Amino acid sequence: MPTYRPSARVRLAIRVDEGADTGALDGRLDQGSTAPSGSTESLQGQQVEGASSREDIERELANVQASREFVTQNRDQFSPQAFDFFLADLDQQRDRLQDRLTATATANAPDATAGAGPDDRLVLGTILPKSCTIERNGLRTADTATVQLDYRDAPFDPRLIRSVAIEIIVGLVDAQSYELGVAGETRDDGTALSLVPRGQAGAASAPEGTTRFIGLVDEWSVTLDGQDGDTIDLSCRDLTAILIDEPLPASDGINIGLPIDRGVRELLNRLPSTRGTSVRFGIAGEEGDAPIPGSSVPRSRRSRRGRGGRRGRQGGQRLSVWDHITETCTQVGLVPVFEDNELRLIRPRTFYENRDVARRMVYGRNLENLGFSRKLGGTKVPTVEVRAYDPALGRTRWARYPVPGTAPRTGVFGQTDPPRPARANEVPPSGQNPDDRIRTFTLDGITDPETLAEAAESIWQQIGRQELEGKFRTSDAWSWEMPIGGVDLLRMRAGDAIELLVASPETADLARGTTLASATEIRGLQREARARYLESIGWSRRVAERFSELQDATAFQTIFRSQNMRIIWDVDDGLSIEADFVNFLEIRELGHESPRAQAPSPEVEELTSGRTDEAAQELRRISATRSLVTALRDGGLLTEEQYARRMDELTQLERQRVGDVQAS
Predict the structure, then answer these.
(1) Residue percentage of the chain with pLDDT more than 70
(2) CA separation (Å) from 78 to 64, 70, 539?
């Protein structure tokens, strides 16, 4: 079985305080910090001329490497002075090309962290940390990191530092590379083979992507301790911090007449600290067409001559740019999320979908610690109602999510009032007098009913994951049944699916009443053995049978969503990963799926397009039922046998209806 060693390093871009010498910076105030045309700027802070493609740069780099190997192998053919000259020249060419290669990987970075500087006060370096912790938080919140360095590696007084950008690289190195690196072997870029290579997600510089955090240092603290050693502690936030700290200028804002991604991009480009930030709609590979916020704004609030208005800050409001972007995105059912250097505007439903297979974690196998808790007080699963005043009607519009069956999702107060309570989300121990608790949100300027409904679902998706929660800790970088050497846990983010299981015991005759010492043994019992165990410790037979039955219920939940996670690396203790998780409460709402989830398949749509006869309508209903049955199976509400039987029935019925439609 191959072995791997965890590795971490930190790349710092430190801007030295210029003191009274601010002339170069003052000269850039009028033109912002945009890099000159025809050049790019990497995190290394070195300006690179030209705009060659990545393939061209890699080809040139390969030629330089070949020339360097030729000079080294034929050293005897050169005089010492000529050898040193050729080697130094080739090393300079290699470093320059590697900088250009890195620039293509950080091209999406905002100018605040990767723009061309006006002077030479940028200091860069790669340091091996003593420890570092990366915390990936939920939506709307900046990811954070703390790093501890040995003072000897960066002996800089914080009084000399103006600002710092940071990149944290964490990954695994196989045993052979580690041994070669310790022996002095290096990669083409000069780094030891014993260190994890650098590469951002999606960049060709590393297939899996090893950059785990990109952001700014908020605090640089130096501690001088004669006993434990001198250290530097860094407190950091990701690039969301730039938008959180930037106040929204008065009367400025997102142009709601443009697609949301373009409107956000134009706003950020008008502000010096955020200029150059890459903005995209949707997840990678599924971008599609971005919605236009102005399509749901009253006519009286739109600009004339076809120009879209701006949602600017109004008097008395103190909004940050991040607050403004989040608010506008919510009104069209989106949430903003930073992925490395790029700001993505995505739907919460997309963010919480199984883009990959749920990561399987098994207590007793790859989990060191696992805990659950359930909130029994306060709001459990609130129904969300959003309201917005429509000046054209002189009334307030409303939208709710979720709603039962065919009840209306939207309406106008005084004309179509919200439906009566139908969801028992507040249940006392006796089961008597349940309540449907509704949480109300007021939004400004939305008059389109569908947009209002999207906003209600967006909010519900974000706050409706708080009922059942827990946490786990592992020292593995990969989930159970993942190929050894994978690092899927290092890529885990808030909202990713996790399957949590408890391993069955391999020893002890539990049916004979052997003393049970752990939760693993109790959970591994068969239903009857579990009931007998509960009776043996004093519970009544009725209670024992009931709880044993519930433990094996098909709806017993094992799939959860990560709420936040922490990557912890320590030079002495190695790598560990901790995560908080919550349940995805839509399992209870599957009987009231939204119309979008029950839409007919594309094949059925094509076959029945434009048809209103009974056979076509029945075919659409069959397709929608098929989607619902699949959702029930995925949510654990149907066994595999029940699912297979129901799908066979639907398949036979669908074949009959397809023949009817084709015949007519």
Answers:
(1) 63
(2) 18, 11, 89
